[in-house]
Each structure stands twice: as structure tokens, then as C-alpha cells.
Design brief:
The protein is built from seven helices and 19 strands. It has 319 residues and is an alpha/beta fold.
Length: 319
């Protein structure tokens, strides 16, 4: 059996969302010929987003996939190379670092930027998946504007769900919070704020069993977990706020992670291994916006560029 092929590059980027693509643009313009391991599927959460109206420079808005494609083309224009493969395992204990791909190929890199992002938790209902981007969303900050004057539903019982519900009241006529348990998990202060808002109501001990609608959301089929009764709830939007899962599995045991699995960083983008940097939602679990991910991609690229320059600089002689 032949040994897997090995390729050597100066810097490898893992992930192809706004963070990874911005880092690729900066590194390519610095003549570092970055190799972008895009992952399958590629493009990150924006590939699941329809209208993006809060990314600077697009006053008329832009479709999420189109924004990703433009950033991809910009990085390629300056010399970035893309490989549509997943990183399955890594060896960060030696230099150069080794990234093992699903095809069996090994990429060796002097510096690595991890920009694998985080994926929203979903209900895994076929109807929910079908209507993602057409009334079903996991980001109220991104999509709340499109629900002016409508009735929307937020699913979740933690602080994030309360924050999403409160934010949505700026646009929606009414927000119903659905939680499958009898008590919310949110902090008392967040619960109090949400319960005091006249536009917010609660359905506890309840779960969504189907999202209704053909082209867009028209309602939900919900089940009362206390008695099993199923009924329909009219709604024009569904927002999931049941958490995110950082895509860090390949780096577990190699880089320091926090209790929720996000990468730990210090001095902004530096991870626990010198020469490995993080960008975007893979460590930023607070903002989760395309623009903040892009900004962090820029910072990670500048940090990686500085690291490579210092590593290549001749050492001063003390003779």
C-alpha cells in the first residue's frame, strides 16, 4: 500500500467562511500563497443565508452564497489556492504541522489558521431543513429585520433565547418563546426582562413537531408534552436559539478548548500552540456575525504573517 502524498506550504487555512476567506485574501496579498482547506460543504453559515443586508459595502443587500463566492474569487485573484477537503486529524506537536485530509493526503504547514466556525443546533425536522432561509433562521440579529409586523417563534430556554426574543420585538408584532421544559434555563434577570415585555409570550412543556408552509413559513405544528395534544400555531418565522456546536473535533486534544468546545485564544488570535491561530466563530461565541468573523480573519492573517516573518529572520549571534 503506497504512502499518502505529502504537500508542504507556508500557511494553511482550515475553513472557508468569512473568517477563512478574509485571512486568505490578506495572506495571498502578502505573497504567502496560502492553501485553503475549504471543507465539505464549503463556505460556512453564509451558504445557508439568503439576504445579507448588514455586511458593509452592499447597500442593496447580497445573497449569502454570492458574498462567499466574491470573497473566494478575491482570494484566488491574489494567489490563494483552494482544496475542497475536510481535515480529519492533525499533528501539532512537530514542525511543520501536519494536517491529514479525508483523501489521505497530508498537508505540512509552517503556520495554520483554524477558521472552521460553529454550526447552529437544529431540530432536525425535514420541514425545518427545507425552509431554512425561507422563514427558518438561527440568527435573529441577521434576519430579524425581514419580519416586520409578523408573528415569530423563538425556540430555546437560555439567555440566548431571551436575547433573541427581545431583539425580535423591535420588528415583529409578537414573539412566542417555545421551550420543551417546564422551566426556563435563562438567568433571572433575562427571564424577567422577557416576561415583562408586552410582545412576548411563552409556551413551556411544548415542542415543535413540524414547520408548516411550502415556499415560506406559515405556522408550526406544536405538541403539549404534558398531555400529548397537538395543534397548529400560526407564525411567519421560526428562530432557533438552542445553541451552537463549534467545529473543533479534529483539534480536540491538540489545542486548548473551553468547556463548550470553542478554541481558547490569548493575545486575540493565538491558540495554545505557537504558530496556530484561530479566526471567527470557532472561538468567538458572542458575536457570530459575518463582519466580525471577517475582522478576526484579518487579525489572524496579520498574526500569522508576523509569526512567519520572525521565524524566518536570522537569529542574532552572541559570539
Amino acid at each position: 500500500m503506497s504512502a499518502p502524498s505529502t504537500r508542504r506550504v507556508r500557511v494553511a487555512l482550515v475553513g472557508s467562511g468569512p473568517a477563512g476567506l478574509t485571512a486568505a485574501i490578506y495572506l495571498a496579498r502578502a505573497n504567502l500563497a496560502p492553501l485553503v482547506l475549504s471543507g465539505v460543504p464549503s463556505g460556512g453559515q453564509l451558504m445557508l443565508t439568503t439576504d445579507v443586508e448588514n455586511f458593509p459595502g452592499f447597500p442593496e443587500g447580497i445573497q449569502g452564497p454570492e458574498l462567499i463566492e466574491r470573497m473566494h474569487q478575491q482570494a484566488e485573484r491574489f494567489g490563494a489556492e483552494f482544496v475542497d477537503e475536510n481535515v480529519t486529524s492533525v499533528d501539532l506537536q512537530r514542525r511543520p504541522f501536519a494536517l491529514h485530509l479525508g483523501s489521505g493526503q497530508v498537508v505540512e504547514a509552517e503556520a495554520v489558521i483554524v477558521a472552521t466556525g460553529a454550526n447552529a443546533r437544529w431540530l432536525d425536522l425535514p420541514s425545518e431543513q427545507r425552509l431554512r432561509g425561507h422563514g427558518v433562521s438561527a440568527c435573529a440579529t441577521c434576519d430579524g429585520f425581514f419580519f416586520k409586523g409578523k408573528h415569530v417563534v423563538t425556540i430555546g430556554g437560555g439567555d440566548s433565547a431571551m436575547e433573541e426574543a427581545l431583539f425580535l420585538t423591535k420588528f415583529a408584532d409578537h414573539v412566542t418563546v417555545i421551550h420543551r421544559r417546564s422551566e426556563l434555563r435563562a438567568s433571572r434577570i433575562m427571564q424577567a426582562r422577557a416576561r415583562a415585555h408586552p410582545k412576548i409570550s411563552f409556551l413551556l412543556d411544548t415542542e415543535v413537531v413540524e414547520v408548516l408552509g411550502q415556499e415560506t413559513v406559515t405556522g408550526l405544528k406544536i405538541k403539549d408534552l404534558r398531555n400529548g395534544a397537538v395543534r397548529e400555531l400560526p407564525a411567519q418565522g421560526l428562530f432557533l436559539a438552542i445553541g451552537h456546536v463549534p467545529a473543533t473535533e479534529a483539534f480536540r486534544g491538540h489545542l486548548d478548548l473551553d468547556a463548550k468546545g470553542y478554541l481558547k485564544t490569548h493575545e486575540t488570535t493565538r491558540t495554545s500552540v505557537e504558530g496556530v491561530f484561530a479566526a471567527g466563530d470557532v472561538y468567538d461565541h458572542r458575536y457570530r456575525q459575518a463582519i466580525t468573523a471577517a475582522g478576526l480573519g484579518c487579525m489572524a492573517a496579520l498574526d500569522a504573517e508576523k509569526f512567519l516573518a520572525e521565524a524566518a529572520a536570522p537569529k542574532a549571534s552572541h559570539a
